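Regression check, acetoacetyl-coenzyme A case 512:
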Amino acid sequence: MAVVGLGTMGAGIAEVFARAGIGVVALEADAEALRRGVGILDASLSRAVSRGRLAAHEQAAIRSRVRPAEAFSDAAAVDLAIEVVPERLELKRQVFAELDRVCSPAAILATNTSSLSVTAIAATTKHPGRVIGMHFFNPAPVMRLVEVVSTVLTADGVAAAVSDLARRLGKSPVQVSDRAGFVANALLLPYLNHAVRLLETGYASREDIDLAATAGIGLPMGPLALLDLIGLDTALSIMEVLHSEFGGPRYTAAPLLRRLVDAGRTGRKSGRGIYDYADASADKTHSNGNMAASAAPDTVTLIGSGDDAEADLATALATAGINVTRNPAHPTDLILIAAAAGRPVLAAALATGRPDQAVGLHMAGGLAEVVQTSLSSGQAVASALALASRLGHSAVRAVDRPGFLVGALLYPHLADAVRMVQDDYASPADIDTAMTLGCGYPHGPFQLLDSVGPAAVLASLESMHTAYGDSSFAPPPLLAEHAAAGIAFGAGSEPVGAGSASAGSAAASSAS
Ligand code: CAA
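Current build output:
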């Protein structure tokens, strides 16, 4: 096979094929680009050796299967060529014209495009029936998903052959049709872009946004760190394609994303994106600095509405040896309001008569969301952060708005997944498979949604929609129907909102 373009993805794909015993012609435009691309491959293999995951002789064997080349004619004898050049249709068409010229008509020509129309690429080739999308996920050697994208022009048997090949590579293929972003990127990118918007509007800090996703939702990476991995330029290209196909604010690229790309801050590959990778020690921890600012309070006034969240908090405070009163007239170090979705913290804070000393605390799994109102003092917020730490929780600052921070990130993402089902593009099971195998989600969006409960997600989205008037948050009718009927989306269809599976326990508690 041949890989055309040895950037992060191309080098990763070359590694996947070579590891499976398949000879790879690794093509780049010039010697310098080739040297860089082979360097990416070598670094990945050396890392596997140093971690004890690959023997030195296997590394040598894999490497010997990869033949670096600069001329398309070197790919004349391949059975499969995969194009992995930057996301520009014209560039891709040029590559396909060259492949058309040199490869046998029996060879399959695949594109790894993240979002461009495979049909538009195929239509200008001599044999569009053998053109297909074969979309890998970053890091290609690790992520198991391959989206196999057929067009109306794809010949019978090509998708099946590519799916069989993907299985031979140890991957899990899903067959999808040619729609912008396919399944995974059409869901992932708007969520990542929304995270950038939360950052640029000062809704939360970058570290808190990422911690909300990892500790609050259970995802393997925060959205901002993931953008740096994918490449901000790639992410921007995908957003532009999604916007041109679907329109609307949810698909409008965040201005900050565009500015960072303009500035050359494209992520890990350039050494700087949303985070700075020049100082590796600083970046690996991505500390949100929320822990050390203040001493934990000795006495706390606890205000709640008699629900489980309040009872749990009372128990945790007592266990930590903190004196708790329920009477706001008693002087204490901090007023803690057991926050819940749909109940603004500010109203409860005002009712205490000491709103400056009051903050909300909302648990999302093991993550504490310290909810500050516009009247909370900095001292009260710092004290609540220290308290969360003393109770053994990671903590983020959240503003007193619908969804706080975890819900503000997650619920619009779940709504996008429901919209995709509503549009009859993919099933809940396909979507869960794509996001677990392609993006490392421990539980797919529909497992998360069912464990929170469609009614709770619906209520939060309605509050967000009312608060901002942004159509991105308008709940899809299908979600409202499931909420009204009390039925889950998942194949198992357990009672909704029961949190019965361990799936999404973090997010489930974020709805309470
Ligand atoms: N290349 C090769 N292998 C890598 C790697 C890389 N760049 N990064 C990590 N790995 C391997 C490690 O060697 C390790 O393997 P072993 O267990 O065999 O030693 C394994 O992956 C886990 O790595 P780490 O322990 O270093 O790190 P981790 O546990 O934090 O996992 C991660 C890292 C796999 C990247 C994980 O954080 C994850 O799944 N993140 C989500 C990534 C994601 O969403 N990808 C999809 C992006 S969207 C896309 O790619 C589509 C598009 O078109 C834009």
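Comparison notes: Residues 44, 47-48, 51, 53, 114, 137-139, 141-143, 185, 188, 220-221, 226, 230, 234, 438-440 surround acetoacetyl-coenzyme A (CB under 6 Å). The CA atoms of residues 93 and 121 lie 6 Å apart. No diff flagged against the previous build.
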